[in-house]
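Sharing a chain and its predicted structure for anyone who wants a worked example. Both blocks are below, sequence first, C-alpha cells second.
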Amino acid sequence: MRKLILLLVFCICVNGFAQELNCNVVVNAQLTGNENQQIFQTLENQLKEFVNKTQWTKKEFKLQERISCNIVINITERNGDNFKGAIQIQSSRPVYGSTYTTPVYNINDKDFTFEYVEFQNLIYNESQYESNLISVLAFHIQMIFGLDAESFALEGGQPYFKQAQRIVNFSQQENFKGWKLEDGLQSRFALIDNILSPTFIEFREVMYNYHRRGLDAMSKSKKDGKNEIALALGAFKKMNSRRPNSYLSRVFFDAKAEEIEQIFSSGPNVDISGLIDVLNRVAPMHASKWRNIKF
C-alpha cells in the first residue's frame, strides 16, 4: 500500500513538472455561419489538451513557472477538411515583487490555413513536419518560450528561437503561406529571421532591460524602474535608424504600448521628454497613446 501511494505521488509530481503552459484555447467559427457544428468544439478541446499537455522543451517547469497564454483561432472558411482563418496568440509573465502580469507576446497571424479531420491525432515532433496546424502552433509556442526567457536573461531565448527557425525550415516543404522569404515582411519567416539577425540586436536587449532592469526593479524603487524602462526603450532609436518601421518594433509595441502609456502616466515623475520623441519615431501607429502620457 505504501509503495502504491509513493507511486501515485511520483506520477503526480512528474505530470506537474511536465506541463509548461497554462494556456486557454478558443476556436471561434462565427464567421463561417456554421459555428454550432460539433467539429469546432472537438477541435477546441483537442487543441487545449495538445497545447497544455505536450512537452515542448527539455526544461522542467514548476507550477509557478508555467507560462500563461491565450490562443484564439478565428475560422473564416471551411471547405470539407480545409480551414482558413487567423490565429491570435498572447502571453504574459509575472513581475517580480507584485501581483501584476506584463504582456510579452501579442501577435495576430493571418496566414493560417490548415487541414483537420475530427479526432485526428495531434502530435508534435521537434525535428519533422506533421501538419500546418501543428507547425503554426509549435512555432508560436516556441516564440512564447523564447520571448519569456529573453525577459529574464539576455539571449536566454536562443534555444527556443533556434527551434522556431527549425520549424520554419521543415515547414517550407508544403504549400502553406507564412514560411518563406517571399511571403512578406510580416510572416513567420520574417519574424524569426529578424530576431536572430544582428541587424535587430537591440530588440533582444530591450526585452531584457525593459523587464528585468525595469519592471522587476519597480518593487524596490518605482522611479528607478521607470528610468530603466525609458533607457531600454531608447535603444529602439538605433535600430529604427538602421531599419525604420521594422516588424519587430511592431511586435513589441503591439504587446507593450498600453502598458507603456500607463507606466509613464502616473507618478513618480521622471524626465521622459526624449523618450516621447523616440516613441513617436519608432511606433507612430500608437501616437494617440503617446499623446496621453503626462510628465
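Comments welcome. Confidence is low (pLDDT under 50) at residues 1-17.
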